[in-house]
Amino acid sequence: MTKIQDPISDTPIKMNRIQQKLQENHKLLSIYFTAGFPSLNDTVPLIQDLEKSGVDFIEIGLPFSDPLADGPTIQKSSTQALKNGMTTKILFEQLEDIRKSVAIPLIIMGYFNPILKYGVEDFCRKCKDIGIDGLIIPDLPVDVYHSEYQPIFEKYGLINIFLITPQTSEERIRFIDSVSKGFIYMVSSASVTGAKSGFGEEQQRYFKRIADMNLSNHQIVGFGISNKETFQQATKSAHGAIIGSAFIKHVMAEGPKNVESFVKGIRK
Amino acid sequence: MSYHANEKGYYGEFGGAFIPEMLYPNTEELRRQYIQIMQEPSFKEEFSKLLKDYVGRPTPLYFGERFSNKYHTKVYLKREDLCHTGAHKVNNTIGQILMAKKLGKNRIIAETGAGQHGVATATVCALMGIECVVYMGEIDIARQAPNVARMKMLGAEVRPALSGSRTLKDATNEAIRDWINNPVDTHYIIGSVVGPHPYPDMVARFQSVISEEIKWQLKEKEGRENPDYVVACVGGGSNAAGAYYHYLDNEEVGIIAVEAAGKGIDTGESAATSALGKVGIIHGSKTLLMQTTDGQITEPYSISAGLDYPGVGPMHAHLYRSGRAEFISITDDDAMKAGLNLCKTEGIIPAIESSHALAIFEQRKFNPDDIVVVNLSGRGDKDLETYIDYFGL
What we know:
A: alpha/beta, TIM Barrel, 9-stranded parallel β-sheet, 11 strands, B: Rossmann fold, 2 domains
């Protein structure tokens, strides 16, 4: 890993894999999938196949009974994963040896209640032990993170990633930028997750507006990216894009084996 | 010590706003303005006028003589069952529709379980001529057909919640998703003292008219504003919040919260959140919550559709945790008997939710000179079929 100097302690610290990846000079593709879907033990093979297919980083969805920021596709995969028996504990067991075979950044995306129930510090410690690089917790607002949890996340070297939307005020975006240490998850439009029919001028203006703010964190676009065309539109001014629902639909239709064709379809 | 929400929406350790960023602008707009709007003279005037002329307030504070004699104590019933649409729910929907107008919103969404809040929302939307979409679990739609019909007659669109367990919590998720998708023109009328700040506090304030009236009504009848106890059933807890509101910080008044034990607390079919819940996040609020050891939200059970919410309003979680309120849980059977008992002793058919509150007199003794106010939150018309099935009428 690249070593950089910690400006305060003057000792060399390891750069988080996410930060390293963000320095690469190409448009990043991230794939989200729900852990334990379609079958309980598909989690690890999916991660391995996604890396082999050339995905830049992966968001592993920790399923929740009440995913209120998600559209029907991710709801369905979450419900199925829970039916398959997925729990936080099982996910950690599945990922125990993941760093023996996978090198790209791994992010866990989950709602706050299961993490709270597991114990926030225990959860963070476990993530560090396994080699998880970051977390996305949509219902843990930046204000609460900043006032209550930031020291715990940082103690375990975890990067917490925050969302912004077209409605987020400039002042709040600046605040989120100041708290962020990796990238900002730019939600493409006011909506829950799920594919839309491409991005119009309004979205392009929004992407451009954020790019022009010269934030200290890169932006990665998510929500509504489903194919090569929307990936290219989204990454015109952003550093990368995240695909979730469209990938889960692909897995629903073709099973968990044929990951490469999906990724190549985005990147070709 | 105050039992009201602080400026960040916390009741002790409970409350707050654990919401996705997509909801931040909506709730922030409301948070910045709700108290100011509620204090505007024009708002207050229109709110009280509608409560009086349209809802039928003040509702009577009725001394139940035969009921009191039976239990050797003085029991007053706060007759929220006499409100237009049959329950206290309309106090909140009137307040929120006026709030929505002030905020310039032209579309209303709501969630409903049994349909009471859905009907109360559809009613005020009809009154104001505003578009209304009510989310209701697919399973609830099937078992609450009359209320679905009422909402439709009132011009609302009833959309089935098809996700998760397809009941109240999922209807609430769907309403929240709708609000994420429609952040600018839509106001979400939550039906109880749940959800992210400022909802629990705002809904409690709209419902606080209940205890405001109890104070002067009791003064007229007994020469004192304070009862010894105020009793209410708690699902999410809006009728209770309204009945307790002006007594919260007055510790001379005992507060009794009655939860639904369903078939019994230890049967796995219960909705007694204080007994079975653990700290968690539901619908944007930190509260006590029925959940698995893995933090998945579970489905509660009660014979009463209005009490089977897996969480509880953060105010009530705090009243429980701090010991300010006494929590009692009542089984389906005891509630049903208490409902029938009120019919026979006072000629009032209560909602099964309210029957839970009435059932405590079989279990808990009061002194003969105690004054106990029970909030009779709703009438039993909607529950006729359940009463018929249960008693084989």
